[in-house]
Design brief:
With 679 residues, the protein is an alpha+beta fold. It has 18 helices and 17 strands. It has 6 domains: 3-152, Phosphatidylinositol 3-kinase Catalytic Subunit, Chain A, domain 1 (Ubiquitin-like (UB roll), Roll), CATH 3.10.20; 254-310; 315-384; 397-488; 496-537, no CATH class; 542-678, no CATH class. The protein has helices at 3-18, 52-63, 105-109, 118-125, 196-199, 244-310, 315-339, 343-386, 405-421, 427-440, 448-466, 473-488, 528-535, 542-558, 571-581, 618-624, 636-652, 656-665; strands at 29-35, 41-47, 70-74, 77-78, 96-102, 129-135, 146-152, 164-166, 173-175, 217-220, 225-228, 390-393, 399-402, 500-502, 509-511, 597-598, 616-617. The strands form 7 sheets. It has a 5-stranded mixed β-sheet with strand order 2-1-5-3-4. Helix 7 packs antiparallel against helix 8, helix 10 runs antiparallel to helix 11 (448-466) and helix 11 runs antiparallel to helix 12. It is elongated.
């Protein structure tokens, strides 16, 4: 038999010997000491009827350790959980001593070893310690020996921190020395104390009369006394006698007035606080909504750009694609120059040129498809406009419509034109449509187009009757083109001979309407097509500058300045201002993201112009518009730099003022506010 089994047998035999009878059992509290280490010990008081399991449960909560990992030893023997406290051994003073340990299985079940930390025991629970004091028997006084349970309270004060340092290696805090005295003792209060000290009254004699005799100047007899005033005299004038009730009433009235005024000021202050709090919450909500809207705007812009690049239909969409091709070519050229040299560089550049030609051809092919698709839409809009009655506003804002014979003719011919455009396979329906069209053209003036289209109708009719199957697409296109010219023809309207000019780039003579007009040019020399071809090689997207111009115009409309220069400038002018004058970056943060740049007013009191703007990011522009004094925010160096930029803008757009004068004096500026599509 090993030593552990012998120890358990010994403990079991002692338990059987110490089990008391039910009649002899006495309920009492016992002091229990837990020996944690050689220098650490805690004590608690428990009823002697508790089991070892209940004691483990209580001490485990105080040390924050699972009770199943705790072991209570006595005389090198371990007690089971069903043992009672009165079944254990106690010393001569009635104190039960245990050795408190952690079992070995706690290491295997958890990743870390639990500890019996006295800091946890004393810091979180603030429990009091208990000791048992044994008073021996005294024969002189005939007193028996007895044990007294003493509770020790921790009444230590919180010491102030007067300085120290922390060791970076060990992590131990070292504090400087300070006084160990407690807080000052309060003075003894006499309230509630019945003693001679508080009930004794000491009387003191105090002089209240003046110690210096003084005299006054008086003249006259005993009935009429005239007093001569001196500088130190105090004159007391008797007033009307006021009874005590009236005096109390007047004092209470004044107190009520003060109370009303105080409550009224409190009410005004509370109302002001509520209004300010409501305004603060409203501003917070508005700021959150603006931030969310700003984030949604960026997401919508990226999704719109992706959709535009995938399904391009307008000139701006194809300009965006050409700009993207230009940026791709620029990046690829830089990569080739960095990686290759000599013959390999020439080969890579040739391959890059072939890829660029292939991409441009694909864009041009897509452009032709979009042009054909938009051609039919333009024709329908033109026919719809020609067939609308004439409208004007008459007396008392009455809308008057007049349907002319010309508009009725256009509507009738438009219905036949739509039938001719339908590709029906039924020969009888097609022949019926041709006969209807021929009958409608009998009332038209005899022109070359009418004779030619009648001949084409007759030719198609003969081919339909003589053949079973034939291709008539080319014939249909020619018929539709001639019929559309007949619809647009008006005998009352004489065609004006337009003014023509020769383009210096393509050397072609074109009408004056086909030439590009810009605010910075001095003469009409480049047509729209050549100007467009010159700008397609740019790596910058003009839609970005168009968006910047729209934001400027939107801000000017909100300020009711419809005669501003912003409504005269075009996208190319905004591009020149940002890229040439401001060098494509913000004046403050040097941000070069063109999509995030804005051109707000520099001086909010003046209208927007190229010499009254500043290049900032969108966030900087929002803060700039909130400023009242520019001198308090911008230093002198930045203000001088901005002033130089304004001089460059005034020089570049020196002809803009003359154009603006014509724009205002002609009366066309008032129509700007009615353009809802540009908002």
């Amino acid at each position: 038999m090993d030593t552990s089994s012998q120890t358990k047998e010994t403990v079991r035999e002692e338990r059987e010997e110490n089990i008391p009878d039910d009649s002899a059992f006495e309920y009492r509290k016992v002091t229990v000491k837990f020996q944690i280490s050689d220098t650490e010990m805690v004590a608690q008081v428990y009823p002697n009827c508790l089991t070892i399991a209940e004691i483990k449960q209580d001490i485990g909560k105080k040390f924050e350790v699972d009770p199943k990992f705790l072991i209570l030893r006595q005389f090198e023997g371990e007690y089971d959980d069903d043992y009672r406290l009165y079944e254990t051994c106690s010393n001569e003073f009635g104190i039960v001593e245990f050795c408190l340990e952690i079992s070995d299985k706690a290491i295997t079940e958890h990743g870390k070893i639990p500890e019996l930390n006295l800091h946890v025991y004393y810091s979180k629970f603030r429990l009091a310690d208990f000791i048992t004091v044994h008073i021996p028997e005294d024969e002189t006084t005939n007193t028996k020996s007895k044990d007294i349970l003493v509770e020790i309270h921790n009444e230590s004060i919180l010491k102030p921190f007067l300085g120290g340092y922390k060791d970076k290696v060990t992590g131990i805090d070292y504090f400087d020395a300070f006084t160990q005295t407690g807080p000052p003792v309060e003075k003894i209060k006499t309230s509630g104390i019945y003693s001679r000290d508080t009930q004794t009254v000491l009387e003191h004699t105090k002089s209240i009369d003046t110690m210096i005799d003084s005299s006054t100047q008086a003249f006259g007899n005993s009935n009429n006394i005239i007093n001569v005033e001196s500088a130190n005299d105090v004159i007391i004038i008797p007033r009307k006698y006021q009874p005590h009730d009236e005096k109390k009433k007047s004092e209470s009235k004044f107190a009520n007035i003060v109370l009303i005024q105080r409550n009224w000021r409190r009410y005004l202050w509370q109302r002001l606080i509520k209004e300010a709090a409501g305004e603060f919450r409203r501003l917070q909500t508005e700021q959150a909504r603006r931030e969310e809207t700003r984030g949604d705007t960026y997401i919508d812009r990226f999704s719109n750009e992706a959709a535009t690049k995938t399904f391009s239909s307008t000139r701006e969409d194809f300009e965006m694609l050409m700009a993207q091709v230009g940026r791709w070519k620029q990046a690829e050229t830089a990569r080739i120059k960095k990686m290759f040299d000599g013959g390999p560089r020439i080969v890579e550049l040739n391959l890059l040129l072939d890829k660029e030609i292939e991409l441009i051809n694909g864009i041009e092919h897509q452009k032709q498809i979009a042009k054909e698709a938009n051609k039919e839409i333009k024709e329908n809009k033109m026919l719809e406009k020609l067939s609308k009655p004439i409208k004007w506003i008459g007396y008392k804002n009455l809308v008057i419509e007049m349907d002319l014979l010309r508009t009725q003719r256009v509507r009738y011919l438009n219905s036949i034109y739509q039938e001719l455009k339908q590709n029906t396979k039924c020969k009888s329906k097609r022949i019926e449509t041709l006969n209807k069209a021929k009958k409608a053209l009998e009332n038209e003036d005899v022109t070359a187009q009418v004779n030619e289209i009648l001949d084409l109708f007759e030719r198609e009719k003969n081919m339909l009757l003589a053949t079973k199957h034939c291709e008539l697409d080319v014939l249909h296109k020619r018929q539709q083109l001639l019929f559309l010219d007949i619809i647009k023809y008006c005998k009352d309207r004489k065609p004006d001979k337009p003014e023509t000019r020769m383009c210096d780039t393509c050397k072609c003579i074109k009408p004056i309407n086909d030439f590009a007009l810009r605010t910075r040019q001095t003469s009409i020399e480049t047509c729209n097509r050549c100007f467009y071809l010159m700008n397609t090689t740019s790596v910058l997207d003009n839609s970005v500058f168009k968006a910047i111009l729209r934001s400027i115009q939107r801000d000017e409309r909100s300020r009711r300045t419809l005669s501003s220069y912003a409504f005269i400038l075009q996208e190319e002018d905004i591009k020149y201002i940002i890229c040439k004058i401001w060098h494509g970056h913000s004046i403050l943060s040097k941000c070069s993201d063109i999509e995030d740049l804005r051109l707000p007013r520099w001086n909010k009191a003046d209208d927007w112009s190229p010499w009254n703007c500043v290049c900032l990011t969108s966030a900087e522009a929002r803060h700039h518009n909130k400023l009242n004094r520019l001198e308090d925010t911008y230093d002198e160096g930045i203000r001088k730099m901005i002033k130089n930029k304004h001089l460059l803008g005034r020089t570049a757009f020196k002809r803009l003022q003359a154009v603006e004068t014509d724009f205002v004096e002609s009366g066309e500026w008032w129509k700007v506010g009615l353009n809802q599509k540009a908002i």
